[in-house]
Amino acid sequence: MTAPESIALAIKQIDEKKQKLKKAFDDLQAHRSLLSPSFNLSWSDIDSHFSSLSDRFRLLQSDKTEPPPAVTTETPLLWPELRTFCENMDGKGLGTFMVDNSNKRLSIKPELAQAIRSSSSPAALVLDAIEGSYHCSPSSSADARRIFVLLLEALIEVKPNLTFELRERARTLASDWRLNIGNKPSEALGFLHLVVVFELVSVFKMEEILDYVFLISNCKQATTLSKKLGLDYTIVAGIVHKLLHTGRLLAAISFIYEFEMTDRFRPVNVLKTSLYNSREAAKRVCAQAGNSLKAQNEATDKELSALRLVIKVIKERNLEIEFFEEDLEESVQELENLRARTTQAAKLASPANPPKRPRAAMGNNLTAPTQSQQPPLLPDPRHGLQVNPFGFVNSTVPRVNVPYGNQLAPYGSVPAPAIAARPVYYEQQTGYGLQSPCTYCIPCLEVEEFEEHAEEVKTLTTKPSDADLLILYGLFKQATVGPVTTSRPGMFSMKERAKWDAWKAVEAKSTDEAMSDYITKVKQLMEAAEASAAST
């Protein structure tokens, strides 16, 4: 069988294979809560991919059966309708057509920018397409939102000429759009694309723009949009700090590399902390659900997802020298094996497989011991067990590592040894690099102390003076946000003006210097309050 014949046969089998894949995808969606927040694949994406393959193959077949023209420079169009809509400046028709074919958007995307170029006014065409598709309707589908982003991305590539009238239309559109954003990343993504294309950054408050950037931080376009929005190094550093402090560590990694901040932040330690956090999250899932088999499976799935994401980043950023990649891959394999064992145990424990009733032995009145009388599956794990480089306890089975030693009850049916109950930092283990507390850009212990003193200052028995409060405010803002980025308030806003001046006065301090000075100032105020209380 020739290669074209093999491909043709495979294409014929697509529908059957799609049905099987759809069933598997539905099973995956049933456990969506266990997946990483960055997992945003939809079935329409997969379906569009299959449709694109079919369309491409039909083109190849037509090229084989019909001899090509003697001289040609144009590639046959899969979607000639796009150019027809654009040449006729039918924006509403273009938007409706793309929404109706949203499941094929991956094959539409390569031809979209060129089609838009063929219009007499690309910017007006795209505005017509979005407005005509009722961009502000709450009932608008997620597929429609993806189409709007696709249109705006193509318009960025076209680099259209913008008139005052077009920018005013876009400003009105953006003002209405932002009312529907809320906490929805898809809405924020479309809004920021509109702001970038029509140069509307100055129309909206920078604080609001930054909130939307943070909202889409897990989207692949986040760093690109941040650059096109003109965010400078200081502002992006503030975004990275916020991402780190809110647990969006892998999103922070993208910003650190795209904006060349590896001299200020330490990507390796961020990744190691991400691994540690995933381990702790898995433990919490099990503890909250009473260490049931279902909870064990959920915990393992969460940890596997996090570990695979970290391995992907390590490979993309060439950080293999900082990690033992073989150990990470081996840990993935061990978790997969663990998942298989707990799944099998769950099946055996299901009502479809009830335990057999014990029989009397040889006619005597002796019966099999009850479950509480049977000896444990493994020796008491408190005796001589050690934590391995993955934070697992070595089991009695060679080459198999499971938490707490019991391969049949991995998350706590057998009591956990004391050493495994302590937090296991990746930096403190063989194979993961550093032998110091985890750090992003400053010691974690100092961050914890800073946060503790930020809470303690609220408990002072005597209110600090206005001057002391302004010093605390300036140091706190410098430590958590960085140098002041707003303009000085007017003379009629005396309070806000004083706070701005206090922040501006310490803008030369680094983050760790500002934290250290803040801690020192709080300690001084607490000592003064204690001395005042003792004297009275």
Helical residue percent?
Answer: 55-70%
CA distance, first residue to last residue:
99 Å
Q: What integer is the average pLDDT?
A: 75
Percentage of residues in DSSP E strands: under 5%
* Backbone shape: flat
Specify the number of helices.
Answer: 22
How many β strands by DSSP?
2
Runs in which pLDDT lies below 50 for 5 or more consecutive residues are 135-139, 360-445
Biased composition (Polar residues): 364-375
Protein name: FRIGIDA-like protein
Domain ACB: 446-531
Coiled coil: 7-34
Give an overview in words.
This is FRIGIDA-like protein. Residues 364-375 have a biased composition (Polar residues). It holds the Pfam family Frigida. Residues 344-375 are annotated as: Disordered. Belongs to the ACBP family. Belongs to the Frigida family. The protein has 536 residues and is mainly α. It has 22 helices and two strands. A two-stranded antiparallel ribbon has the order 1-2. A hairpin with a 6-residue loop joins strand 1 and strand 2 (401-402). Helix 15 runs antiparallel to helix 16 (293-316). The longest helix has 25 residues, at 511-535. The termini are far apart.
SSE inventory with pairings:
Blueprint: H1 3-12, H2 14-30, H3 43-65, H4 80-87, H5 91-100, H6 105-117, H7 122-132, H8 142-158, H9 164-177, H10 185-197, H11 206-215, H12 222-228, H13 233-245, H14 249-258, H15 267-288, H16 293-316, H17 325-348, E1 393-394, E2 401-402, H18 418-421, H19 444-456, H20 466-480, H21 494-504, H22 511-535
Antiparallel strand pairs: 1-2
Helix pairs in contact: 4-6, 5-7, 6-8, 7-8, 7-9, 8-10, 9-10, 10-11, 13-14, 14-15, 15-16, 16-17, 19-22, 20-21, 20-22
